[in-house]
Amino acid sequence: MNKVFTNFGIKSDDNRKDELIRIITHSAEQLTLPELEALYYDMLTKGYIK
Question: What is the distance between the alpha carbons of residues 26 and 28, in angstroms, rounded to a whole number?
Fold first, then answer.
């Protein structure tokens, strides 16, 4: 089955990656310490952080 991506504007993969990193960074900056610790633990156990 083909992957379908919906984009309202055509962006390169690098631009999309940069945009997602900015969104995630901004969101992480708003978290409390316990929320950051929970996120860190979750990402660590899923292997996203090594």
Answer: 6
Element (H, E) at 38: helix 33-45
Contact between residue 4 and residue 12 where contact means Cβ atoms under 8 Å apart: no
- Note the Cα 22 to chain centre separation in Å: 9
- Select from 24, 12, 14, 19 the least CA-distant residue to 48: 24
- Neighbouring residues of 28: CB distance < 8 A, sequence distance ≥ 6: 36, 39
Instruction: For 2-37, write each residue's pLDDT tens digit.
Output: 666 665 666 789 899 999 999 999 999 999 999 999
